[in-house]
Specification:
Layout (H helix, E strand, L loop, with lengths): L5 H30 L3 H11 E7 L6 E2 L5 E13 L1 H6 L3 H18 L5 H14 L4 E2 L5 E2 H7 L9 H4 L1 E10 L7 H4 L2 E2 L4 E2 L2 H5 L1 H5 L3 E8 L2 E8 L6 E4 L3 H15 L8 E8 L5 E9 L5 E2 L4 H4 L9 H10 L8 E3 L4 E4 L2 E4 L10 E3 H6 L3 H12 L3 H10 L17 E2 L17 H6 L4 E2 L2 H12 L4 E2 L4 E6 L2 E5 L4 E3 L5 H16 L14 E8 L13 E10 L6 E10 L5 H19 L22 E2 H10 L3 E2 L14 E7 L2 E6 L16 H10 L3 E5 L4 E4 L12 E6 L1
Parallel strand pairs: 2-11, 29-31, 32-34
Antiparallel strand pairs: 1-9, 2-3, 3-4, 3-5, 3-6, 7-8, 9-10, 11-22, 12-13, 12-27, 13-14, 15-18, 16-17, 19-20, 21-24, 22-23, 25-26, 26-27, 28-30, 30-31, 33-34
Helix pairs in contact: 4-5, 11-20, 13-15, 13-19
Length: 719
């Protein structure tokens, strides 16, 4: 007989099955209810526990000079907020209220523009509103300021305990300030998007690719889970030389500010002859406050009639066609010559003109009559041949400059209709085109033409970017590019080079020359058209130019300087030529390689005055000059860890006195130091520094030995 009692067991199993079924039905019902009637509520709850597809910005690539110096770089910036709900949930709201006076005072020290009372009122307003995203400060702040805020009471806690949170941005900074601003480019700060220059042209390369993360709340904390990591942007290495750029800017601004000039717009470009590398490019506009700033890239975008710098191309065309040679003579008369119902004038027409000139002297004196008559006499019946010659010289070439706003030259080609008549050409078009009117050429194109002459006839494409690199690896190499192997015959290049050299040594370009090396170039002074109003409506505006290269016998660099001004006096050679002179001599001086011992005055036994500060650098220079330092290091460690101290003269030698300046929280004595050492020491103590003047520190606003306090600022006067 089976021990299994069906009468007892079966009912029990049935009850269990029924109960389990009812539970399953209940779970199913609850699920359906949650998915339907209560769906919106739980979706809201889920949304608070996760955030999907959050974009992560990559770090924007750097823009570097030709020798690797940072010209534009991305630095972190922050906007800071308080979440008062999180603060309350963490149970720290009471502590916040108790500490609000200290927090407000701390914020006032960091941001002196707003009082502690104003900060307290502002924070309390956010607290009473229980805001989740209350801005502590309305503007972006740098990393150091951000870290200062993090040291304040309550705010030093984690974001979940303090409610302190932030938004991070990649801010664009230019270590050299406004240097080459329109070429390097700007960013729209609020949008972190490129605005102009290389920043805009190479934006897709510099910008990188956004990453994507999602956030999940685990144990009351959000965890970032990376879906797609961001890809940082690549760096671009430009052709810009910081030293040459600074030199060109200073030389141009000095001339623009001259009372006799009072220029409206100034342009200067320096190009390396062999490569076409743009080493410096300056664009200055006179602003409403009288100061000069880069507002527009005139060097690549201004389509203006170039004036007399174009005469070089006219003479080269006729020489290359073999219609004349350098012995050719032309009659210019008394300085006024009738041309098809109009009068052509030379600049000395009131003094009787130049009379008979040889072809080279038409350029040396920049004779409008001489050049225009030579061209008109030989091309009047076939102007197409002349214009084609200009095209062959490369002046109309589209260089595809990688800067937004670039406009290629516009040089009109004569065109005949089906009746055999010119429909876009007048009798006066040719003579006036030959002297730089009736054409529109940006300065960069004019310079590329003169650079080709300096390069033996080989025209190079102006180069702004050499390489694209990332993490030390070259992603793209942009080698120098030859646009035209020969713009003219070798004999033509030699003839025009000799003539351009004589323009500077004997002609109107003397002020562009140098007594240290040969300079070749051409002046230009042109009236600027006012469109429909013509050339003489109101005050006359002038475009003053000088284009050339140096050293003329072994050209290394070409340069063009253009100044736009109103009224007289106006002289391309006397104004733009002066800027060219300063740029050329400055560049050649930079290239000199001299031994430091050459600076020693052999006729004197005086001990040089040595600055205080980092003694290693001082010791190195003194040793190189041959002076004895009794307790120095023989100049062996110029780049070691700083050793601070002072120096005293002792007969024919110097003695170093080391000083311990490592005392924490004490304002250092930086009087007598150079700016670099002084700033280094002050900032190492957490003191913000403002500098006025040049030279050594002669006065500091904070007394040496005073206790360092948070938020301290010291003004240093140099002299």
């Amino acid at each position: 007989m089976s021990k299994f009692n069906n009468n007892k067991i079966i009912p029990r199993y049935s009850i269990i099955a029924i109960v389990m079924s009812l539970i399953a039905l209940a779970v199913l019902g609850k699920t359906i209810y949650t998915m339907t009637a209560n769906r919106s509520y739980w979706m809201e709850v889920a949304a608070t526990q996760k955030k999907d597809s959050v974009k992560v910005k990559p770090t924007r690539g750097n823009i570097l000079s030709c020798d690797g110096q940072l010209m534009a770089s991305s630095l972190p910036e922050f906007k800071v907020y308080l979440d008062f709900n999180a603060l309350k949930e963490a149970g720290n709201d009471t502590a916040f209220i108790d500490s609000i006076n200290y927090i407000s005072k701390g914020l006032n020290n960091i941001f002196p523009e707003r009082s502690a009372a104003a900060f307290k009122e502002h924070l309390l307003e956010g607290y009473h509103k229980m805001s989740k995203h209350w801005a502590i400060w309305d503007e972006r702040i740098d990393y150091n300021t951000f870290k200062e805020i993090q040291t304040l009471p309550i705010l030093h806690l984690s974001k979940f305990k303090s409610g302190f949170h932030w938004e991070e941005f990649n801010a664009r900074r230019r270590p050299f300030g406004s240097l080459a601003q329109r070429t390097v480019g700007d960013m729209f700060g609020a949008k972190d998007t490129a605005r102009c220059g290389l920043e805009l042209s190479y934006d897709s390369i510099l910008r990188g690719t956004d990453g994507i993360i999602h956030r999940r709340k685990v144990r009351n904390k959000f965890l970032n889970i990376t879906d797609t990591p961001p890809i940082d942007g690549a760096d671009i290495i430009t052709t810009i030389d910081v030293g040459m750029q600074d030199l060109a800017e200073r030389a141009l601004i000095d001339e623009l500010k001259d009372p006799n000039v009072n220029g409206n717009v100034g342009v200067a470009i320096v190009m390396e002859v062999a490569t076409g590398d743009v080493k410096a490019i300056v664009n200055m506009d006179k602003c409403s406050d009288g100061e000069y700033r880069e507002v527009k890239n005139h060097a690549v975008s201004d389509l203006l009639e170039p004036g007399s710098v174009f005469k070089t191309a006219s003479i080269m065309t006729i020489l290359d066609d073999g219609l004349v040679d350098t012995t050719y003579t032309v009659q210019t008369g008394p300085g006024v010559w009738p041309m098809y119902g109009r009068e052509m004038k030379d600049h000395n027409w009131t003094r009787g003109g130049y009379g008979t000139l040889t072809l080279p002297w038409t350029l040396k004196y920049s004779s409008n009559i001489g050049v225009s008559r030579i061209i008109d006499l030989h091309y009047h019946k076939n102007p197409e041949k002349f214009v084609q010659g200009i095209y062959d010289l490369g002046l109309a070439t589209d260089f595809h400059i990688p800067i937004v706003g670039y406009s290629p030259a516009k040089i009109r080609m004569p065109h005949k209709n089906h009746h055999g008549q010119y429909d876009n050409w007048s009798a006066t078009a040719l003579p006036w085109m030959s002297i730089g009117y009736e054409t529109q050429i940006p300065p960069i194109s004019t310079l590329a033409f003169y650079n080709a002459i300096a390069n033996g006839g080989k025209m190079m494409r102006p180069r702004f970017v050499k390489q694209i690199v990332k993490n030390g690896q070259v992603l793209y190499d942009n080698p120098p590019q030859v646009v035209k192997e020969h713009i003219a015959k070798e004999s033509t290049i030699k003839d025009i080079t000799r003539i351009l050299t004589e323009v500077v040594s004997e002609g109107l370009g003397k002020r562009a020359g140098s007594d240290k090396f040969l300079v070749a170039g051409k002046t230009g002074t042109a009236q600027m058209s006012k469109g429909a109003a013509g050339y003489k409506a109101g005050a006359v505006n002038y475009l003053l130019s000088f284009a050339g290269f140096f050293p003329a016998d072994k050209p290394r660099y070409s340069c063009i300087v253009c100044i736009q001004k109103s009224g007289l006096p106006a002289s391309g050679g006397g104004m733009s030529g002066v800027v060219f002179h300063h740029i050329a001599e400055g560049i050649m001086a930079q290239s000199l390689k001299l031994n430091v011992s050459d600076a020693r005055d052999k006729s004197s036994i005086l001990i040089p005055s040595a600055k205080i500060g980092n003694l290693l650098a001082t010791d190195y220079v003194l040793n190189a000059l041959g002076f004895n330092v009794t307790n120095g290091w023989n100049g062996a460690y110029p780049f070691g860890s700083p050793i601070w101290g002072t120096t005293t003269e002792n007969g024919k030698s110097l003695t170093f006195h080391k000083e311990a300046i490592n005392k924490a929280h004490i304002v250092p004595n930086v009087r007598g130091m150079g700016a670099r050492d002084a700033v280094y020491l002050m900032e190492k103590k957490g003191i913000k520094v403002r500098i006025n003047g040049r030279g050594r520190v002669i006065e500091q606003s904070l007394a040496p030995g005073d206790k360092v306090k948070k938020g301290m600022e010291c003004s240093l006067r140099l002299g």
